[in-house]
Structures are given as C-alpha cells and as structure tokens.
Amino acid sequence: MAQGSRKRLEVFVVVKGHPFARDPFEAMLRAIGVEPTMVDQPAAAMLLNPDAMHRFDAILFYDMPGLDFRVPAAELPALIDPDPAFKAGFLALLAAGKGMVALHHAIAGWPAWPIYAEALGGLFLYKPQLVRGRLRPESGYIGNVRYTARLADNRHPILQDMPGRFDLVDELYLNELFDDPTLMPLLYRETPIPSDCFHSAMRAVRHLAEDDAPPWVPSAQSPLLGWAKAAGTSPLVYLQPGDNPQTYANPHYRRLVGNALRWVASDGGSRWARQRSIAAGQS
Q1: Partners of 123 in the beta sheet?
Q2: Dihedral, CA atoms, 225, 226, 232, 234, nearest 10 degrees?
C-alpha cells in the first residue's frame, strides 16, 4: 500500500483476554477508515501466519493472551506458553515484514514467551518474573487519570496533523521498557505522576490487602507512551493509551491510531523497518 493512500484499510484485529467496550472500539476503527475483522483469542492465534494474513493491510493487537486467571489466588496468574504453531506463524510474519500496531493492554500478552515482548518493545508483568535475565517486580497501573500527552520532537509520519500536546483521561502503566536500537519515540506523558500513585497488578488480581501483600517497589518510571520500532523486518507501533470509550472518542487519539495503522501498512513503513533492522545489525 502506498504511503498517503486513503483507501479503507483491511485490518485483522486481535481481541480478548482483557475486558473492553467492543462496540465503541469498533466504532472508532470504522471512523478512522478501517474495515476491521475482529477475531477473539484463542481463535485469532491460529490465523496469525503469512498465508492467512496476506489479504489484510495490517494487524492490530488489542488482546492479552498467555495468562490464566482461573488458578488459585496465590498463583495468579499462571503463564501459558504459546502453541508452537502460533510461534512459527508470528515469527514468519515478522520475517515477512507484516505491519503491526499494538494498543494498551496488548503489552501484557504472552509473558512466558520473551520473543513476543522483544517484538513489542516492553512487557507488563502481573507478577515478578525474569526479564532479560533479571528478576523484575510486577508492573503498576492507575486508572482514569487525566494527563497531557506530548508528541516526540521528530517528523515521523505517524505524528502528521497532530497537535503538539493533547489531553487524555485513561489508564497508565508502569511496566518494563526495553533498550532497543530500532525504537523511535512517538509519544510522552508530560504530566508528572508519582510512582506511589500506581497500584500493584499482582495485588489487584490476587485481591491482597496492603498488610497481606509483600513489599512492592515498582519499576523505574518512564514517560514514554508510544513508539515505532522494527520487529524483525516488520514496522511495529505500540501506543499505551486506549483503555476506554472516552479515549476511543478522542479525535487526537483517533488520528494517532489511524496514522499508525496507515504507516505500518505503507511501503514507507516497510522500508523504514528494514533499514532500522539492518542498521541495528538485526537483519
């Protein structure tokens, strides 16, 4: 697809694993020129391979697979290793350069498979876990907080026609962010929010009171909210905002998501990812 084209995008949208308002989410996608094919996990994982994805311009991840919340409370959540067929299909998509966008809770997906987190550029942890060889604490969250987002100081096509700053009321994360030479920042949180305002994800899912929970020292806070990177030879964009219908309806957020999807589906996005991957010695 040529960059700048305004035809409706055919996008394969992967959902389930985390609650969301399905109708407002789909309405947002249609309003930004997307024809969505929404498929729930685990069925979606069976289709994520180059042959099945050939007809789609891009893939949008709004899912949270690989976590089992049906185990005893003291073990929550259990981490599920992906099926070998999904692993092979996903790696083949990265090798083929398929454009991908991941939103909000998608960064918590497949925590038992490190390659998936490396592709996205970070990981939200529901319990302490080894990450890149180091034991890391569970991640943090704070819901329905008002903040100002600021665009990165670059001329990336995803930021086209966007204001330098815009306000959101959304959920924020404190999670693992990876040092990746292919990564280009897109969006920052300008509003300072102390780390002690965030809540432990593990305490929340295990319903632990403060006195019953082990001490929690959250990960170092980063204001980075969104980025573009090369995942294999695929252009991939992650945007942390996207938790609720108020955000879906925000015209600046809609523009950002629409720009991201069109860019990863474009020839320019594909060239950018290949060049970043080669420059970083990853291809």
Answers
A1: 176
A2: 160
Q: Using an 8 Å Cβ cutoff, are 148 and 191 in contact?
A: yes
- Residue 55: inside a domain: yes
Q: Give tens-digit pLDDT for 37-65.
A: 999 999 999 999 999 999 999 999 999 99
Three-state SS for 62?
strand
Residue 173 lies in a domain: yes
Q: In terms of DSSP bridges, do strands 78-79 and 129-131 run parallel, antiparallel, or are they unpaired?
A: unpaired
Q: What is the pTM of this model?
A: 0.96
Q: Tell me how far CA of residue 31 lies from CA of 35, 161, 169, 236, 263, in angstroms.
A: 9, 17, 20, 22, 17
Q: State the total domains in the chain.
A: 1
CATH code: domain of residue 261: 3.40.50.880
3-class secondary structure, 89: helix
Its domain, for residue 19, covers 9-126+136-279
* Region label for 121, one of left (φ > 0), alpha (ψ between -120 and 50) or beta (otherwise): left
Say how far apart CA 130 and CA 112 lie, in whole Å: 10
| DSSP letter assigned to residue 52 | H
Task: Say which DSSP state 46 is in.
Answer: H
Share of residues in the chain with pLDDT > 70 (%): 98
Burial of 121 (0-12, 13-18, 19+ CB in 10 A): buried
